[in-house]
Amino acid sequence: MTSGRPAFVIEPQGSYSLAASARFLWGFKPATYQGPHEADHLHLTFNGPDGPMGVCLRKSAGRVEGEVHGGDGEQARRQVARILSLDLDGSGYDEIGSRDKVVGRLQGEHRGLRPVLWVDPYEAACWAVISTRISMVQAAGMKERLAAELGDSVEMHGEQQRIFPSPEKLLANGQRLATFRGLFGRKPEYLLGIARAALDGKLDADRLRSLPAEQAIAEVKQLNGIGQFGAELIVLRGAGEPDFLPSAERRLLGAIARLYELPDPPPRPQVEALAEKWRPFRTWVCVLLRASAGG
To answer: What's residue 101's pLDDT?
Structure first.
């Protein structure tokens, strides 16, 4: 990339497909993806420490090349590596397929797929609140409206792409949140609490990743409006903990029951026994199983 913008290169360790990440985002309603629908071409947008940032990603000779729109190249590289699960050596992940035939088959069907994370634990926590007691389609629409009305934007290839409001933006718009269409009950209050927690460093991805997963989940579960499912979402799919077996994800249990011909829901001891073969990438395998079930 020779535009003069900050740029970076990530060399994946282990198998990886940028096209698989793009296809995942195209079909993942909560992502409200705004970028191009092209193989090996992906746009990511997020709030950086100095303002909104956008990254145009392409695959070239096995490497992921990023062009940064707004912000610092190294900051963008670290964020992108975490979002696409490229901050870990995934070499051992492929070996799991030789120990578990179901996983091996799905790895072949979704070649190079790694978990695509929320842009940060803060946004994952906000999603956990927004999506409570409404459909995923309704929640995605709500997230999109919050970005359009309260968030910043970044220009990429001549188009403005909206970004979910930063913690500072939410706190500055507390009155608007209180009357925002669709945010019923205590959801505005919960979102403001999450914004404060993010600014206090309680939702820092590196800090959460440094803790034992059980401890990190217990910590974020103390946030008002966050239950077990939301806490696991924040730590596993927000911070990027790679090796944990969720306990509160019904769709995952349904996928396991179908793929392994078990009762629905499958008994927890059976699931735990299966998951022993998935270490040290239990989270990654769970994402793969969910992807096979359409999400």
So the answer is: 97
**Can you tell me the distance from the alpha carbon of 156 to that of 123, in angstroms, rounded to the nearest whole number?**
21
From residue 175, give the alpha-carbon distance in Å to each of 4, 157, 182: 41, 34, 14
121-204+215-234: CATH topology: Endonuclease III; domain 1 (1.10.340)
Q: Which helix (H) or strand (E) holds 142?
A: helix 136-150
Predicted confidence band at 22 (pLDDT cuts at 50, 70, 90)? very high
Q: Are the beta carbons of 255 and 292 closer than 8 angstroms? A: yes
Residues 6 or more apart whose CB falls under 8 angstroms from that of 206 comprise none
- Region(s) of the chain under CATH 1.10.1670.40: 91-113+240-295
Q: What is the DSSP letter of 260?
A: T
Percentages helix, strand, coil for the chain (3-state, rounded to 5) are 50, 15, 35
Residue pLDDT, tens place only, 82-106: 999 999 999 999 999 999 999 999 9
